[in-house]
Specification:
The chain is mainly α. The protein is 47% helix and 10% strand. It folds into 3 domains: 158 residues, 3-Layer(aba) Sandwich (Rossmann fold); 100 residues, Glutamyl-tRNA Synthetase, Domain 3 (Glutamyl-tRNA Synthetase, domain 3, Alpha-Beta Complex); 102 residues, Arc Repressor Mutant, subunit A, CATH 1.10.10. The strands form 5 sheets. It has a 3-stranded parallel β-sheet, with helices on one face. The protein has a 3-stranded antiparallel β-sheet with strand order 4-5-8. A two-stranded antiparallel ribbon has the order 6-7.
């Protein structure tokens, strides 16, 4: 295989969303798998909608995901001259032509074709216009440029590693618009020419682009370029099987960052879609690249799952070193010294689903930390007498195992009614680390303070009722 070069080519007209992430990730993984290069190219020829802020946001999101590109960032607008020369070259060969048909005429043509059971293709009304006549009309009439692809005979073959070579009969292809009436290029020509100029060898994208690829292969061949090898994968759908939307789980990467998602969780959930044989032990993007089998990525549509993404978030969160966890949980807990916070992170790290869950364990650092309603209910349900007995028992049996035996003997409580009030009083949470570890973390003075505080809360609770 020649040196692999892939690319991600977003339009800087909005924020990076899940569909964009899948395209970027698959191209990045393929390049890394084969020791190749991954390019970032902004298709910024839509000057009215392209914005610098979106360029910077997309770059920041890719860096956050760990999908670094190779070399300088590329811009489609820098190839504008090449696009125009390509169009002129096609026109000189009679392979591109001006079309003066109005939208109302085109709409009528489509309706007539549909009424006859025919596909709504362009009828070719302007295709046979003489060059002189077309140029004269162009002085006063609006027009678009079309490629002269439709023909009774001939074929276009799209090289595809997933589908095999896909052959289109030209009688089934349209004459697509490549330049709008305002003079701006559509996606087809600039995207194809840029791929050729940038040396793209492989392009991974959704199978909704398969017909576009046929048009692009046709024009690249006539411009003397070699088309890249394509991998048209199945589309990314929402959790309900419909087109991905806000309702069915579509997010911008910026929104997920704000929610505290670990970037690796998005990479893991996305990288495994349509690739069921990816090993469980591959926990980084680089490891996913090693095991990528792109030629067998599913050609069927795949469904996005927020739940799977957050499961990966929890799994990766549990694998984080305590030092790395500290800056993530710091805003959710009382301000304590670094060493104490480090020990706290080590204690609760495996019990977090999301980083904000650290707030549930504030009582481990601050005896007066507020309790969640359910936890408070457990504490009040145990009552003052329970905690007085627990305090007395601790002074006699200051370790977790013997302490619970003594409290059981004094109160008659056992099972959940014994352990849950102690857990809540000490940690503030209904679930969490092993209680022997909690006891070791707190030490005698802190445990005594929490038993006394629990007693006081119960007294105050009784007074209020």
């Amino acid at each position: 295989m020649s040196k692999v070069v892939t690319r991600f080519a977003p339009s800087p007209t909005g924020l990076l969303h899940l569909g964009n992430v899948r395209t970027a990730l698959l191209n990045w993984l393929y390049a890394r798998k084969h020791g190749g290069r991954f390019l970032l190219r902004f298709e910024d020829t839509d000057q009215d909608r392209s914005q610098v802020e979106y360029i910077e946001a997309i770059k920041a999101d890719l860096n956050w995901l760990g999908l670094q590109w190779d070399g300088d960032v590329l811009f489609q607008s820098e190839h504008a001259g090449k696009h125009t020369r390509a169009l002129n070259g096609l026109a000189d060969q009679g392979l591109a032509y001006r079309c003066f048909c109005s939208e109302s005429q085109l709409s009528l043509d489509r309706k007539l074709a549909s009424s006859r059971g025919l596909p709504p293709r362009y009828v070719g009304r302007c295709r046979e216009l003489a060059c002189d006549e077309a140029e004269k009309r162009a002085e006063n009439e609006p027009y678009v440029w079309r490629l002269a692809i439709h023909a009774k005979e001939g074929e276009v073959t799209v090289p595809d590693l997933l589908h095999g070579h896909v052959t289109f009969a030209q009688r089934d292809l349209d004459d697509p618009v490549v330049v709008r009436s305002d003079g701006t290029f559509t996606f087809l020509l600039p995207n194809a020419v840029d791929d050729a100029v940038d040396g793209i060898t492989h392009a991974l994208r959704g199978d909704d682009h398969l017909t576009n690829s046929a048009y692009q292969v046709w024009l690249l061949e006539r411009l003397g370029y070699k088309a890249p090898m394509y991998l048209h994968h199945g589309l990314l759908l929402g959790s309900d099987g419909a087109k991905l939307s806000k309702r069915s789980g579509s997010h911008s990467v910026a929104e997920l960052r704000e929610e505290g998602l670990l970037p690796g969780a998005l990479v893991q959930a996305m990288g495994r879609l349509g690739h069921p044989n990816m090993p469980e032990e591959a926990h980084t993007a680089t490891e996913l690249a090693v095991h990528l089998d792109a030629e067998h990525v599913s050609t069927s549509s795949v469904r996005w799952s927020d739940e799977e993404m957050w499961r990966w978030h929890t799994r990766l969160l549990h694998e984080l070193d305590s030092e790395l966890l500290i800056p993530m949980i710091k805003t959710f807990v009382p301000d304590v010294g670094h060493e104490r916070l480090l020990a706290f992170a080590a204690l609760i790290g495996k019990n977090l689903q999301r980083v904000e869950d650290a707030a549930l364990f504030q009582r481990l650092l601050d005896v007066k930390a507020p309790l969640e309603a359910e936890a408070l209910s457990v504490l009040l349900g145990a009552g003052t007498e329970f905690y007085q007995h627990a305090l007395d028992a601790w002074h006699v049996s200051p370790d977790w195992k013997s302490w619970t035996v003594a409290v059981k003997a004094k109160t008659g409580c056992k099972g959940k009614s014994l352990f849950m009030p102690l857990r809540v009083a000490l940690s503030g949470a209904l679930h969490g680390p092993e209680m022997s570890d909690v006891v070791a973390f707190l030490g005698t003075d802190a445990i005594v303070a929490r038993m006394e505080c629990a007693s006081l809360v119960c007294i105050e609770g009784q007074a209020e009722t």
